[in-house]
Amino acid sequence: MTLADAKYQYLLRMGDNALILGHRLSEWCGHGPILEQDIAITNIALDQVGQARSLLQYAAQLEGKGRTEDNLAYKRDVMEYRNVLLVEQPNENFAYTIVRQFLFDAFNFLLHKSLVNSKDEHLKAIAEKSLKEITYHLRYSSEWMIRLGDGTAESHQKIQTALDDLFIYTGELLTPDAVDQTIFEAGIGPDLTALQAPYQAKIDEILQQATLQKPEVKYMQSGGKDGRMHTEYLGYILAELQFVQRAYPNMEW
Amino acid sequence: MSEKKNWPLWEIFIRSKNGLNHKHVGSLHAADAEMAIENARDVYTRRMEGISIWVVESEHITASSPNQSESLFDPANDKVYRHPTFYNLPDEVKHM
Question: Which GO BP terms, alphabetically (chain A) (predicted)?
Answer without folding.
Answer: phenylacetate catabolic process
